[in-house]
Design the sequence.
């Protein structure tokens, strides 16, 4: 199959998992690199600069969550897509993955067909990134810059996780408009990603704490709106 021109890094300490994922993604047309622990994943990510990283949460040396946190703190990896793999099929693991900037979450044992579907869906969504379709938003002393994934409040720069930023940008793009919970889930996480309502609530709370602004209003039983 012709190359899709996109690179993927797989990081997992189980050779059998890496082999089956690498085989299927290569067959799909992606250029694939592999790593077998957290430190190796960081080294390969910085060298290759992949478009998407598949991270096992439970890895030696550094966990997938730690790798994600380190990469998301670097400007060059703000827009890198990240999928977490884990055998821990529980809400707390899922939340931890999303809170550190993960874009999706797939449980083991991995279904190659499902994983490829998720990978393709993420790349389709990434075609229309905020910086390509919309510009800088400014309301009062709040500036939201989608090119640099930066939020500035007055003279203070706030660091938001990827999904926190995208959620804030969505709400701020239509001040006063009430976004229903399912709209937020579909537009920020996508229809292919299954997350609970609590995920939105946690992200909203963290945005409020980091901005120290009362700019996101809860419309009880309906959703949220941006208002200053």
Sequence:
């Amino acid at each position: 199959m012709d190359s899709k021109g996109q690179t993927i890094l797989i990081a997992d300490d189980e050779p059998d998992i890496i082999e089956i994922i690498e085989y299927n993604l290569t067959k799909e047309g992606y250029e694939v690199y592999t790593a077998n622990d957290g430190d190796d994943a960081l080294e390969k990510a910085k060298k290759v600069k992949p478009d998407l990283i598949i991270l096992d949460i439970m890895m030696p040396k550094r966990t997938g969550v730690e790798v994600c946190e380190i990469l998301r703190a670097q400007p060059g990896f703000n827009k890198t897509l990240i999928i977490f793999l884990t055998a821990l099929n529980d809400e707390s693991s899922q939340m931890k993955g999303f809170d550190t900037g993960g874009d999706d979450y797939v449980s083991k044992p991995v279904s190659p067909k499902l994983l490829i579907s998720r990978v393709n869906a993420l790349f389709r969504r990434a075609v229309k990134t905020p910086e390509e379709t919309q510009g800088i938003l400014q309301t009062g002393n709040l500036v939201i810059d989608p090119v640099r994934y930066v939020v500035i409040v007055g003279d203070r720069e706030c660091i938001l996780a990827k999904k926190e930023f995208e959620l804030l940008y969505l709400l701020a793009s239509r001040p006063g408009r009430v976004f229903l919970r399912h709209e937020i889930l579909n537009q920020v996480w996508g229809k292919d990603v299954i997350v609970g309502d609590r995920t939105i609530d946690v992200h909203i709370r963290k945005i409020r704490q980091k901005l120290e602004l009362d700019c996101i209003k809860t419309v009880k039983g309906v959703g949220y709106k941006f208002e200053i």
Q: What stands out?
A: Residues 7-126 form a domain with the Rossmann fold fold (CATH 3.40.50.2300). Residues 153 and 182 are 28 Å apart (CA to CA). The mean pLDDT is 85.
